[in-house]
Structures are given as C-alpha cells and as structure tokens.
Write the structure tokens for this entry.
Amino acid sequence: MTTQHITVTVNGEAHEADVEPRLLLVHFLRDSLGLTGTHVGCDTSNCGACTVHVDGESAKSCTMLAVQADGRLIKTIEGMADGATLHPLQQAFWDQHGLQCGFCTPGMIMQSAWLLADNPDPSEHEIREGISGNLCRCTGYVNIVKAIQQAAGEMAAAAETQTGSPVAAG
Amino acid sequence: MTTQAEPRTSAAIGGMGHSVKRKEDPRFIRGVGEYIDDVNLPGQLWLDIVRSPYAHATIKGIDATEALKIPGVLAVITGADLEKAGLHWMPTLAGDKQMVLPTDTVMYQAQEVCAVVATTKYIAADGVAAVVVDYEPLPVVVDPFKSLEPDAFVLRPDRGPDKQNNHIWHWESGDRAATDADLAAADVHIEQDIYIPRIHVASIETCGCVADWDAVRGQLTLHMTSQAPHVIRTVLALVSGLPEQNIRVKTHDIGGGFGGKVPVYPGYVLAVVASLTVGKPVKWIEDRSENLQADSFARDYHIHAELGATKDGKITSLKAKTVADHGYSDAAADPSKYPAGLFNVITGSYDFPNAFVEVDGVYTNKPPGGVAYRCSFRVTEAVHAVERLVDILAHEIGKDPAQLRMENFIQPEQFPYKTPTGWSYDSGNYPAALQKAMDMIDYAGLRVEQAEKRARGELMGIGISSFTEIVGAGPSHDFDIIGLKMNDGCEIRVHPTGKVLARISSQTQGQGHETTYAQIIAEELGFPVQDIKIEYGDTDTAPYGLGTYGSRSTPTSGAATAVASRKILAKARKLAAHLLEASEDDLEWEPGKFSVKGSPDRFKTIQEIAFAAYTNFPQGMEMGLEAVDYYDPPNLTFPFGSYICVVDIDKGTGRVNVRRFVAIDDCGNIINPMIVDGQIHGGLNMGLAPALYEEITYDELGNNMAGTFMDYLIPTAVESPAWETGKTTTPSPHHPIGAKGVGESATVGAPPAIANAVVDALWHLGVRNIDIPITPQKVWAILHEKGLA
C-alpha cells in the first residue's frame, strides 16, 4: 500500500498524516481526525451531509480525496462555534427548529454559511436554490429557510456594528 | 378530556402547549451527536457485503480465494457457514421468514450473498470486489398479477406442500354482500384502478450497527439503528439462543427512521455472527445504493376501488380489492391480526353505510416490501383511494368537491363513530377543519381565479384531501407483533434535589422526545422542563416497549408518561399532607405545589416534597418518589385534517408546480406547537415526494431503476413549497392528556390533495385519474395526446 504525506489545516489546527491516495477527505476527517460531525449520506454527491469548507469554498468532502486537501484550509461543523458562543447559524437552526434528526444539519449549516458569505442578504428563492445540494428528509425545509433568514439578519447587524455601515443588499 | 388551547403552566415550567426549544439540539448543531457510524470501539473490524447482480438466480459457487489473499481480509462468511448454525434463515416481524444469506438461490437484485470481514472499510470493500460468485439466472417474476398465475415460477418452495404458489395471504374486512348489493343498485357507480407505487424512506442516515461480543462476560452489545430496540433484543435472544439478559441493544442518535429502521436486515445479523466468530467488535454501515436497493420498501398496492352514491352525491358504499406486492418475503411489521395493516380505515372521514375491502399479499423477485414510509400500517394507501374516489364522484356529478365532502362527513355529534369495517373513531370535527382550510386559502376566490384562467387556456387545479388517520397501535386485545403486545412504558425517578430522570420505551429518530416527554412530566408535576432528563434507546435501562412507528409514541409511551406522573403525584400528595399536617382531601394542587385549601400561604413545592421523599417521609411509607407505567391503550386514536392544494401546470413541459398548500391538522391536544408544526412540514414533504417525484421501479429482469439519489428524486428545498399550516383541536377522549399523535398525518393526507389538484386542472380535458408520482412525462404525454403540448 503506497501512501502520500499530507499536511491539512482543519479548524485552525495543522495535521500531518500518511494516507492512501484513494482515501476520501470525509473519511480522513471522520476516521483519522475523529471529527464525526461531518456525515456521509450518499455515494453520489447528492445529499450534502458531508459539506465542509475548503479554503473558504463549500465542498462535498465525499467527492474529494484527502490528498487533494494537502496544504489547504478545511473548516468543519466542529469549527463553527467560538467556545461557548454558537455561530449565528447554529443558534438560528436551534431557535427556528431548523433540524429534527440532525443528520443533515452540519452539512446544511456549512452550506448556509458559505451561501451567506457569498450573498449576505439572499431572497427566499436564493436561499432555497443555495441549499438545493443538501437534502433534508425531516423538516420540509420551511424552518431551515427561516433559520438562514434569521442568521442573515443577525450577521448583517453584527457586520454593521463592526464597520459602522450597512452591508450592501445582495 | 378537555380541550387545552392555552398552556396551563408558566413558561418557566414549560408544560404542554409551550414551544420549548429542543433539549437535544445543542449536540446536533455542534456536530457532536452520536450516530451509528460515529460509534467506534477498540479493535473494531469492518464488514462489507457481496450482493447479487441478478434478481433471481441459482448460486453455483462462491470463490473467496483471491479475497482471502488480501492483507487485512480476515474472513468471508457464506450461507453455508450460517447453515451449520441454523442461522441462514431468520423470522420476519410479520411471521414469515427471510434469508440472512442464501445457501442456493438469490431472490432479488442486491440481495446479500456473502460477507467480508476485514480490518478497515477500504480493505473490506477490496475483499467484496475480489469475491467471485457463479450465478445461473432463473426466471424473474416482477409483476404481482403474473406472479398469481397458475404457471408462475414458485418463488418460495420452502413453504409447505399446500403453499406451492406465490400467494401469501388473503385478508378482508366489512360486509361483502351488503356492499355488492348497494353498488348494484346505486344511481352512480364509480370504478377506478389506482396504483400506489413502491417507494423508499431514504432517511439521510442509512442503516448500520456495531456488534460487540465479549466472550469473557458472555455479553453481546449491539449498537444499531433501530426504531424498536426491545423487539430486536427479544428476537435476537430467540434466534441466537443467547440469554436475553446478556443482550444489550443501544440505538444512540438516529438520523431519520420513517419505518425503514424497524425491520431486521441481514447486515445486522451478519455483524453479530462475525463478532461472535472473531471475538472483536464488528461494524457494518450500508451505503446509499445498498440502502435504496436492498432495504425494505413501502406501498406497492394495486387497488381496484368502487364507490356507490345517489345521483345528488350521497355516498352509500365503498369497495376495494387490492393486490399487495410484498417482494420475496413478507417482512412488514404489521400487527399479527392485520397483515394489510389498518387498510380498512379506507372509509375515511365519510359516513359510508356499507364497505368491504380485501387484500391479497403476493411474492415477487423484489426486496421485502410492505414496510413503511412514514406510515406503517397502510393508511396512506387507504386514504389515497377514498380521497381520489370522492373527488371523482364530485367531478362526475358536477358538485364542488368541498361541498360534496361537507355533505358526506361524519358529523361531530356522531362520535364515537363505528365504521362499517369495525373501527370506533374516538373524536373528530371534520367540517370545522375543512372550513378552516377553505377560509385560510380563500377557496371561493381560487375557484373564481381558476375559471378565469381556464377561459384563457391556463391549467390551474385545486385539490382537497380530508383524511382520517388511525394511529397509536395498540390495545393488547387486538395488537401484537410476533406475539408481543403493543404496549409501551415509562419509568420516572425523582431525585432528592427535585431533578427528574425518566426513561421511555419509545425511540426518537428526530421527533424530539427528549423535549416533549419532559413537557408531559412538567405539565403533570410542575417540575421545570429543564430539570427533566429523558432517556431511551438502551434496552438495559429503558422499560420494555414496542418502539416508535405508526405515530404511536405519544398515544402509548406518552400516555404511560402521564400515568406514571400521576402515580408520583398521588404519593406526592401523601407526602404533602404529612409535611403540611393536613388531610389529603384538604390539599389543592396546581402545577408545582400543593397548598392547603383556604390557606394559600401554607404550601409545599414539588421540589420540597421530592426532598422529603428521601429525608422526611411518614413511617410505613416507602422511601423515594418513583413510578413506572406500561400503558395499554383502550382504543386507537384518530387524528384528522383537511388539506387544500393549488397547482399550476406548465403546458410546455408538463411540470406540476404546487403554488400553495394549506394544511389544517387536528392531532388532539398539543404538547409542543413548534415541534408539531415541524412534524407537519416534514410529513408534507414526504407526501409531496411520492405524489410528484419518488418511485422505485424495476425492469423486466428485476433491475432496480432508482438505486441511487441520482435516480430516486428526494425533493430539495427548491421543489418544496412554503407549507402553510393551521390547527383545530379535538382531544382524544380516552388518552390521558387528550393527544393523538401527529408524525404521519401529513404524509398520509398530502398525496391525494396534490393528485386531486392535478386532476382538477385536467378534468375538463377528460382526465379522470393519474397515478402518482405525477411526473412531467406523464402530464406532458396527456397534454400531447389532447393536442395541448
């Protein structure tokens, strides 16, 4: 078995490992690093339960090899909260009952975070389009949309406080 | 039971009626839930499964030589190995049997053929790829009607000499003669074939387990995705011969169930066998293709339905003859007396004088069907049939479908209502729910808009469904699964400091039991909801019960929780009398405290009473404040609702767009309005899905044509409407807190509303029925034929 040496920064912490070239990023995160918040729900990149950020971009970690993550910055659900302080999206999913079984939730939150980074003030339709690569079987999406709207509002207000000027409407 | 429209407790206590935020959510939003694939034990091995590419074939040989040469592949388990221990077949929950591994014949595509045990999941997959199986294909039976023909290939020769055919069972309910006579004499006689297609629950988490055999202690711990862990433990004990006290089933967090995690799949058993063999923990996690191709399916009902009515639209009789495709094994989890579930609730919300239903179960070369899709007991099929027929009648006699329903509803004063197939509906107010839906969506305005659009050549439809559900199985005199009575329990322990631990036998797969059961106790005893911890899913500690499916948790375990709380309250009253030096009769209870009548300043809080239960109790009283209850429901509960759907049809593509959907539900008294709304939203999506998108089909060779999420179309946020919900409240008169159960209502009620809306849009073109899923292809073909597309 040949292996390849990689260095990957996950949630701000550098990890070095010798991995098989065929190892999927999601299995590296879950099995090698023990970050089991990133889930696997399908084999075909449809469900989005494995969504993480790679260099700030949303990516389905079941469709990427660990060796492709060499030298890159990964963020997973475990890196979203700041200690006891939840990310506005985590808080909003809780407030709005945006989850039931919770299995799609980490991927859904990661995708939503990327969506709001790309478009801080999305319309309902833009939200629905933006999360259409992430499947939820429990919620009917109604409260997920509400949660993303709540977080968008709070994040815009926080940005305004920081910069002293309103964020341009998306 | 009185209607509880407003909360009785303060927000700080958080009893019934409060939208308490979920106690389970902090771990899920941080990604630290513990689902089955997150369970990893020291020394754990992996099991992967070789599956059949053929739907029906003889196995001529299995060559594992190359697989066993791979470093890290430890064993290959075949049916022949299991046969030595008598484990190659296992019982299903429906009294049939199914293969764990075949010894000679595979019966459906993707059936388990043998299992590879290896040190990692990647090496296990390498092993699977290296196993060579020699198959000789056999004739494939896909169509259940052909399966019933006399010369059909007998799929299950293992059955007795009198059962050498593919007919599993016949079941009927109601009065055939009276129904036939009424139909023959009826002014209007509607007949319609309706197919309810095979679908799959496809919870986003697939199934899996970690089997952990400890040879020194003689202890088997099975971590698994199960909605009914106690049943699994008992079946395991019976099948394996291991003593039941040494089997522990733990479920952890479950990533959606919807009925798909009730059955026992071969993978679970293989992991147990592997762990028993190698003495190490063995993990099996199916991938999505295995889940969609091999796990149990729902529906697959071929219904021929008839309805009789007077010429002015008074319905008088209903008849349904159904062929049920159960695949190669009857692995449904239906109660013993009800092989077709509760399909005879088919008279629905209407006052039918006569009804008769019959169902024949049939074997085919498909995976076991007849399980569940957010409705365990065939209610969805029944509701679809009656709601389609009533709509066809309305259109045929030219009466508004809402008006026709109003004229035929069982009226509020008729409850308890005995149906012609023998059920006793507990309570209902059907006209109120439909009227509320009509008001909310502006039904009259929509009909005006529809007429205007039709004049312009646009296709808009309005569909109604006024369903009656039947949930909460069930009373012990009628309901058992393989002999186990369908009762459920709750055990409550109040600790000295006034904090509460309660264990329930139902299982959450996302329903929020950690919150709602705490609210029931908060309601009954006045402990703040945040002081109450709910546990479940560990058979070593939870009380026995049949688990969560069929919207039965609140009707059974929820009732047990209320009754156990009341047992605690009775003891608390004695303690309060002791502490206040008053007679029990002189005490008044309000949630959280007992006070002396007329002296409101003389009181003891429930926390003070809990402390006294361990520190200052009267001589002769047992220490502690605990209770357990196993609830045997006196009747089922009958939630209901009225849904109205508005669709627009694109003439160019045949695409159906659900523009609006109003759902009025009545599930009795509500524990947590936020969670009930969430259940309705999710249920509606799982009604939308089979109505417009999802179907598992097979080609003539038995190849599954929807075995991945590329082909099996779960609605995304884009396809899903912004559901609009509303409530009426008609408590169950027999349930301790007046609740009825809600998880499946919307999945049951939504599909006919959507189908009725589409047919309503096309009726003037001569369209009378379109079987679900109503895909763009089906609609476009109709429009094309009519010269409109």
Observations:
- Chain A has two domains: 4-79, 88-163.
- Chain A is about 35% helix and 15% strand.
